[in-house]
Amino acid sequence: MKRASFLIACVGFVVSCMGGEKVPKSAYDPKLLDTAQQIAKDNDEQQKALEQQNQVQSEENTRGECDREEGGCPEDHVCWDSFFCKDGSTDSCSASGDKLCHKRCKTDRDCTAKMPRCMEKPIFKGNDNGVLEKFCVGKTR
Fold it and tell me: Residue 70 gets which letter from DSSP?
């Protein structure tokens, strides 16, 4: 019995000292690593494309507030802030426009999906001498 116990202990010791298989530098399959790197690269490219698209949309459809006195729109945009006063009196004025920057255009092709129509609208600055401006507007305008 002592001999069997001793033999089992020796076998256990020898097996533990053998070391078994050596662990490779990377436990991951190189194909798996390549795939993971490609996915990370694709995700980065998608993120950059989204950021670029958002920047282009914000430049094309500048949605910041603007006003007829201070402007606030890029050079190729017009602020749709118009008001007309009857008889030159400031108490009987009516306003039109949305006080947003709209891209100037010649045809509908110059406009974006968000504001797809190129229309000519009068911009009044208090008196009856309005100026016709062509700019992109939404479908309902």
Answer: T
For the chain, domain boundaries: 77-137
Residues 6 or more apart whose Cβ sits within 8 Å of residue 63: 100, 101
Q: What is the biggest distance separating any 2 CA atoms in the chain, rounded to whole angstroms?
A: 122
Write b or e for each residue in 18-30: b if 16 or more Cβ atoms lie within 10 A of its Cβ, otherwise e: eeeeeeeeeeeee
Q: Tell me the whole-structure pTM to 2 decimals.
A: 0.48
Instruction: Supply 43's token pair.
Output: 């995700």
**3-27, pLDDT tens digit by residue?**
555 556 555 555 555 555 665 666 6
In the chain, the amino acid numbered 13 is: F
Calculate the alpha carbon distances from 26 to 18, 30, 36, 37, 51 in Å: 22, 8, 14, 15, 35
For 42-52, how does the pLDDT look when each residue is reduced to its tens digit (9 = 90+)?
878 887 777 77
Quote helix, strand, coil % in the chain, to nearest 5: 40, 25, 35
CB atoms within 10 A of CB 66: 22
